[in-house]
Amino acid sequence: MLLEELSNNDRLWFEDQSRQKRVQVQRHTQSIPLRAVARRVNDQRATEDIHESCVTPYAALFPVTMTFLDHMAHHLNGSLERALYVRLLPWSLVYPHIDHGAYYAVRDRYHFVIVSPAGSYLKSGDEEVVMRPGELWWFDNKALHESANRSEEWRVHLIFDIF
């Protein structure tokens, strides 16, 4: 059902390119934000320091995904914060980085693997894993981390934060 929603909304991969343009280590990605930072007018804080998040207009096109995310937040005894679909270009990387800022300091980051023909390589700190489609992973995004798509096809994850 999640794949069907993505397929029905394929054009949205090109709507919001701010993440790959603003965050250099993410330059090989495309994303569809479902919940994003809620920046107030004249708020000069860095995105990484803003705690508030809100539903994006795209979320209405993903009712199954949003229900899944709400269930996950409930199951994890937390509240759903930022959430987005992210795809990584074939044979490319998300370069090593640490998610700094007040927002990340108090939230847990999860990856739900949607499409990954060769498995999704992820390194966080000293740990390296290969994630498979259908698996849900928590990882320490406050440690130095990186990922890779070692296949001929796009790699797609649903990434979300729980407070």
From TrEMBL:
Query: What is this protein identified as?
Result: Aspartyl/asparaginyl beta-hydroxylase
Instruction: Report which superkingdom the organism of origin falls in.
Output: Bacteria
- InterPro entries registered for this protein in UniProt: Asp/Arg/Pro-Hydrxlase, IPNS-like_sf
Residues in Aspartyl/asparaginy/proline hydroxylase domain copies: 55-162
